[in-house]
Amino acid sequence: LADKGMEQLVASLGLLLLFTVLILLALGGNSLVCAAVYFDRTLRRQPENLFLVSLAVSDLLVSVLVMVFAAANDLLGYWPFGRVYCQLWISCDITCSTASILNLCAIALDRYWHISRPLAYVSRRRITYGIVIVWMSSVLIGFAQIAFGFAQQKEHEMEVLTQELLQKGSSKPTCQLLLKPLYAVGSSMCSFFVPATVMVLLYTRLYLYTRKHIRSIRSQLKQATG
């Protein structure tokens, strides 16, 4: 029993160290991105860097609002923060994760626009509108469960189990989320599969466009030197 207890202690300490390192790296790295854009005039004057700041903010929120409480839940083996924050925690997780991938999609679209149309100018206002749309969409997807849960607890399209469920053989509360298939598929498509597909298509187009442009330059150089 003593050996088993020691093994559990070592495993818990290792997990704690891992979570601490990951959270600190996320906080430090994304804070540096925000600070660099804020303090560097050259970076601040380039409106497309606002997408990078938005991405960094979404990842910062993941580390603060999601990872910290996920670490506590895993280390303690139960959910100690109550039913209400269980709902908020799940909603924040979905919102920030969705915002992160939508920001990546917006960055891919911005790069494609700049490379395929180098003379076109994208204003700061348009980029700001894009960021607002990203966050509004993310909040809508993430917090729809709370809105539907409070409005129609039995008949809504998504069923959220945020009450303190009892684990088998234990009186410790857990935080669980159960989705109906329709909502699960819809939110997964909007939060991951559609943005990921768009990014793959955009970067594929960028690769093909760049390769074509390089071939054109080489052809012109050969004609000039030949």
TrEMBL record:
UniProtKB keywords: Cell membrane, G-protein coupled receptor, Membrane, Receptor, Transducer, Transmembrane, Transmembrane helix
Topology of the protein relative to the lipid bilayer: Multi-pass membrane protein
Domain G-protein coupled receptors family 1 profile: 29-226
Localization of this protein: Cell membrane
Record has Ribosomal protein as a keyword: no
Keyword Nuclease assigned: no
Any one GO cellular component localisation term in the record: plasma membrane
Membrane-spanning ranges: 12-38, 50-72, 88-109, 129-151, 182-208
Gene Ontology molecular function: any one: G protein-coupled receptor activity
Entry's family note: Belongs to the G-protein coupled receptor 1 family.
PANTHER family: ADRENERGIC RECEPTOR-RELATED G-PROTEIN COUPLED RECEPTOR
Record's protein name: G-protein coupled receptors family 1 profile domain-containing protein
Organism: Parascaris univalens
